[in-house]
Amino acid sequence: MKKLALSLCAMTVMTISGCASFADMAGADSATLNAQSAQSFAKMTQEARAKNQLDSSSSTYQRINTVFNRLKPYADQMNQTGQRFQWQLAVLKSDTVNAYVAPGGKVVFYTGIVNKLNLTNDEIAAVMGHEMTHALEEHAKSKIGAQALTNLAIGIGKSYAGSSIGDLGSAAIDLGSQVGIGLPYSRNLESRADYGGLMLMAKAGYNPNAAISLWEKMNRLDGAGGGSFLSTHPSNTQRIGDMRKNLPAALAVYNQRR
């Protein structure tokens, strides 16, 4: 079992450093993912429009769209994927407090995140910058590679151990691969998006202090800071602490524009 543990540790290191390349080898290259994302986004918006769930005229939409258009040029400057993004925004009429992005720059906002949290434009920019960074750093592609590597590590580990591992040992490998590879990796991507979003909003002239007030509002909505163990996202409290550490660098960028 010690050799097995060492094998899984080695796989973990490889996951962090090479998952995007592994995704390419698995057929999930950037151009393919972006094209698939564009098709899915078009279908989603068409269905939302048919159900009268696509917002394209409210004051909430106008505010989100204004932030989106202001951040786009700076996001394009940061794009090192080798693929030109066709940025698109869909705002959905829903009380859901959420936003997400798909490969190639397809951003989806729910009106609930703005209306329920009473977000300022700067706070909208914090959310938008976070999502744009996910796309710019191709985190969806990285997760595909990470999952493929995780599955490979599990298969190798169970094969190496053989029938003597038993049900409990098998479950331990599954949990170990999740905690050792999957979940911390996802949390790392969220932390990277927080940092990248902070810098992106600052470059576009939005006050990065708003990223902290955004997550303070999230904290109040959630009712507690929450724990990051067995969660794909850092706790709100952890996010706020990390942002405070990165705030001076973001403020330096922001103040250069004033």
UniProtKB/TrEMBL annotation:
GO cellular component: membrane
GO-annotated molecular function: metal ion binding; metalloendopeptidase activity
Superkingdom in the source lineage: Bacteria
UniProt KW keywords: Hydrolase, Metal-binding, Metalloprotease, Protease, Signal, Zinc
Pfam families recorded: Peptidase_M48 (PF01435)
Residues in the signal sequence: 1-22
Claim: Signal is one of the keywords in the record: yes
Cofactor: Zn(2+)
S-adenosyl-L-methionine among keywords: no
Note on how the cofactor is bound: Binds 1 zinc ion per subunit.
Domain Peptidase M48: 70-245
InterPro entries tied to this protein: Mito/Outer_Membr_Metalloprot, Peptidase_M48
Family that this chain belongs to: Belongs to the peptidase M48 family.
PANTHER family: METALLOENDOPEPTIDASE OMA1, METALLOENDOPEPTIDASE OMA1, MITOCHONDRIAL
Official protein name in the record: Peptidase M48 domain-containing protein
Organism annotation: Acinetobacter higginsii
Biological classification of the source: Bacteria, Pseudomonadati, Pseudomonadota, Gammaproteobacteria, Moraxellales
